[in-house]
Automatic annotation (TrEMBL):
This is Uncharacterized protein.
Amino acid sequence: MTDTSGEQQTVAQATTLHFTSTFPVPSPMVCQGDKVANCEFFKQQWEDYEVATGLEKRDAKIRLATLRSVMGKECMQIFMNLKLTVEERKDIEICIGALEAHFKPKRNVIYERYKFNLCSQNAEELVLPANPESTPVQQ
């Protein structure tokens, strides 16, 4: 006779280690178009997914593997080329922060001042307060 209780216990332990959920997986990160909005949308989806599935309480390796598997091919290629150390690649918060830093544009103050200083007011344009209803315009 075989020991079926030992086999059943092993199977029961194996099933508790697997992660299953009916909650929809986040859609892959879109790396074209409005990258900032796409990154914020993906991050929000990811945070909701982690909370809804209980993934946030899991081991960092599992969380990172899940993140990398749902981020999509383009985002994964970008992620692989980020300048992160081996230790930083093991921390999910650092990885998400590095992706955000990559997709959010750096502000060029000199260029923005240049664009602002190019503005000119035409003779027929009025200077109005931020809230036009707050003060009447005198003509």
